[in-house]
Amino acid sequence: MRGDAMIPKAFDDRIGCGIILEALDALKDTDAHIVGALSSQEEVGLRGAAVVANRVKPDLAICLEGAPADDTFLEPHMIQTRMGKGPMLRHIDGGMITNPRCVRFAREVAAKEGIAIQEAVRTAGGTNGGAIHISGLGVPTIVVSCPVRYAHSHHSIASFSDYKACVKLVAALARAATCEVISGF
Asked: Is residue 93 reached through a cis peptide bond, with omega within 30 degrees of 0 on the bond before it?
């Protein structure tokens, strides 16, 4: 680490794996049945996510992703995701339109916990949420992303404060997602 910057290789989606592990540790005292899953082949058809969704049959899915931090190459008015500004909630991408109630829930939880968030609409790309949200009879799915620069390269860059905020948000979402809340989606 250099200051707040973490600089490993290929953070997509190693950063999501770390968030899952830390969030599960933060949730070890909860009575809810929480499953953390790491899957493969997202980039070639979401195959691992489809298998996980059909095996686990979740009531709610929180997908973790390394979102493109586009704050270095776009005009300021076009930037959707900046490093150091908190987790990103994805409304739309090439494979999913997030249920607006799920987004509202995530916004409310973030506000209650004092977690700064960013929101984005992506015209391309996708996440494991694309396979999970249409599995079974449909699964309410929220995509929480940690902004990352150069996610597929040998020198990715992400903010440690964004990473910790993602962990905090995921744990808070899992705690707040009661049966009553989920049935409202």
From this structure: no
Fold type of domain 5-27+59-183: Aminopeptidase (3.40.630)
| Catalytically annotated residue among 42, 65, 108, 119 | 42
Nearest Cα neighbor of 52 from 68, 74, 37 is 37
DSSP state of 94: T
Residue 115 — pLDDT band, cuts 50, 70, 90? very high
The ranges assigned to domains in the chain are: 5-27+59-183
This prediction has a pTM of 0.95
Sorting pLDDT into bands at 50, 70 and 90, what band is 1? low
Q: Can you tell me the distance from the alpha carbon of 94 to that of 124, in angstroms, rounded to the nearest whole number?
A: 4
Question: CA angle, corner 153, sides to 53 and 128, nearest 5?
Answer: 10
CA distance 114 to 106: 12
Cα separation of 50 and 30, whole Å? 26
Q: pLDDT tens, 94-113?
A: 999 999 999 999 999 999 99
Higher-confidence residue: 48 or 117? 117
Is 113 in the active site? no
First to last CA, the chain: 39
Q: What is the largest CA-CA distance in the chain?
A: 46
Give the span between the Cα atoms of 84 and 31, in whole angstroms. Answer: 33
